[in-house]
Here is the input.
Amino acid sequence: MSVVNIVGTLERSPAIFETRAATSEPAWAKWSLIAVSIAFFSLFLLLPLVVVFVEAFAKGWSLYKDAVTEADAWSAIKLTLIAAAISVPLNLVFGVAAAWAIAKFEFRGKQILLTLIDLPFSVSPVIAGLIYVLLFGAHGWFGPWLKENDLKIIFAVPGIVLATMFVTVPFVARELIPLMQAQGREEEEAAVVLGASGWRVFWSVTLPNVKWALLYGVILTNARAMGEFGAVSVVSGHIRGQTNTLPLHIEILYNEYQFTAAFAVASLLAMLALVTLGAKSLIEWRQKSVLKELQS
Amino acid sequence: MSIRVENISKQFGGFKALDNVTLDVPSGELVALLGPSGCGKTTLLRIIAGLENADSGRVLLDGDDASDTHVRERQVGFVFQHYALFKHMTVFENVAFGLRARSKKTRPTDAAIAQKVHQLLELVQLDWAANRFPAQLSGGQRQRIALARALAVEPRVLLLDEPFGALDAKVRKELRRWLRRLHDELHVTSVFVTHDQDEAVEVSDRIVLINHGRIEQVGAPTEVYQKPASAFVFDFLGTANRFEISDAAQGYGYARPHETELALSACHDTVAVTVSRVQHRGATTRIEALEQVRSGPKSDHRYFEIELPLVAVGSLDLFEGKVVHVRPTRLHVFDRQIAQSAGAAS
Amino acid sequence: MTATTTPANAGFGTPPYPAEAIHRRPPETQTALRTRPGRRVLPGLPLSLGVSLTYLSIVVLLPLVALFARTFSLTFDAFIDAVFAPRVVATYLVSFGAALLAAVTNVVFGGILAWVLVRYSFPGRKLVDTLIDLPFALPTAVAGIALTAIYAKNGVLGAPLEALGLKVAFTPIGIYVAMVFIGLPFVVRTLQPVLQDHEIEFEEAAASLGASRLRTIIRVILPAMIPALLTGFALAFARAVGEYGSIIFIAGNVPYVSEITPLIIITKLEQYDYAGATAVASVMLVISFVLLLAINLLQAWTARRSGRTL
Here is the structure.
């Protein structure tokens, strides 16, 4: 159900449509449609992005610097990085394993497995947080046992990591599966016939073929992991300096009417988003030149 | 290295891909598995390679049961229909892959690998392409690299799945001859799959005709063409005209276009037809004709193709729409035909 | 096997070239052959499947089971009370109503955007194409405060709109705006590849048959896009219904007016009303399942229609 796949066929450039008599529209129609599109795009996508940076620097550089280097902000940055550092590699291993099983083999219940992978896409992040509270919270299934053993998951870092893992489940797997399915099994079979071991097949044949999609999957997972708000909000407990991630820190600052500081911290995450999109474009461009080469 | 396939059966869901197939490939021969698409020939090849497991039966390589040997250890060379070259590796790396994949103990030195790879690339006349990537080569060149890669591990047998299937007509023909010459040079026992009877006839020592998961006939190209064992073989190797045999229980006999003739008047063994097309081709003339309607839907009417020497055509004064009578000059009758077709289709 | 030949024409000799017609295997069995596994040929199925299932069980399955188990521990009356409390019902109307409107908006404008991006070259096309994914990449809290700043009383757009008598921030309209923001890429990115793959020949055929351009678009292109449009709609709708971060800042969260369902779950949780939170969550979850099922069916339909694989 991922709609951000970078796999795909070689894109036809608009010129193909524009230069053919049967597939082009009158200039006035074309430019009106472009104008409507740009207006809608600017209003709903571009403007919010611009506003983040404008507001962040509204009161000057020094306030910005203070906001992002202040102690609570720092601990939020650290926690965000820790949560991502744990959940992203785990998701990577899961995603690669799931894609290998689904794309290279036939087995019963595959469709159910795929649906399970997609599920976190359509579950509200609030519910993603709630389910862990029901499991590990004070009144949850494992609550009493955790308390006896002096373990804390909810309102602590493990809960944040778990919630992050839930919301990022589909990302790597869903990037890899369509690509690996499209590539089929022949290259792997050829490697096995030539005597290669399983790991060798994976490292020297499968992995190089999907490295760009894999990289993009990881970048996307990372963006989501660092930016997740709803799910983390439910399990974190909002303890300043301890269980606050960057998005939660933004909320606190905003609710305390420290708008400029909130936007300053938000601008860090907005930059992360821009880097993510930039990386996507780069990877897409790479992928396309590979495709072009293959087709020439 | 000989190959023996013994009582192999393979089922895919409810579909019987191979039905108790037994086949011997003597050492050093080049054998074609020929049949229509879906007849089970590729499955048989993949079972010999170990890429597919048979439901029952054995595969013997040089007399040893290889059924439980993993494809990794079977030492077969397999050339895939779409080459399956590793896209991200150079031609050199592709060919070297099998040697590099060996365990440390048996792996040749880098120098030995390099020497071997260049030797193979020379053999397939692509030494100049060592540092190119597969994407930079043409289809025919890729196919030759795939062959070099398969040969690098010194396989006991070479298996090729529709090796020329993805190539255009001209390259196909060149590569066909090249493969034949290569085989004469190397004498590796080879099996290749094709659905093209010309290809099978031109390249192979022996042809194995497969239909509906069963072997219909095994023989040298001339043998299968001249003495077809079943109606299927007769029909698959060329155009066939069907005639009813009034006095035989089997029902039908078959004749090639050049084994039929036309008459202007009806006789007990002729079929009334309407001429639909006349083509003069140098010394011969090819006539297409449709059976004259007696009853029943039009789609049931037989179509005939008749090839006559130019001299025989003049007296007939053929034109489109003319009603003439067709008669076989030689009729091939097969015992098994009805049982075969009905049994396989049910 | 399921051969389509009947005994009547199963004889081999009906020329010309009857072998083709008779011996070709029916398509369904051909796919069966092609998708068949090379069972033990490629290694790693037990390992990869084991890893996947373990991860999914711990992270997804077990917690969801816990949620439903909790729900079933409620009495029926308690469940009904929690789920149909007037304040909760009001949140359904707000969440689903706004999500519906937002998804419709996105289908219209996302459709135009996808069309423009695929069909026209214009300065800035590449930039627009890249930034379409912004709502995927931008953390929802960031989007939330940015949208609020824009549409607040003194915001860039909020001020002029307020002068016209239209309040956006802290009203249901704000919720709608946030939902449009997060849903847009779903429509554009679902539609784009299908538009890309749509063969030019269809349009040329229509034109050669004398159809006007508008007629071609409406009768030839649009019908082919319907599965993709519906998929995009369902994806955008599902995302909007569950969305939390980008909405709560701009919504105002006034009970009965601008309170969304995810928020009421959190509110109940903060009041230690676990039963109530669980009941409402299970309702939302069931709706997500239904939407997911619908999306899967729609995508299968899209794939069949456009000949793409999922």
Notes: The radius of gyration of chain A is 23 Å. Chain A has 14 helices and no strands.
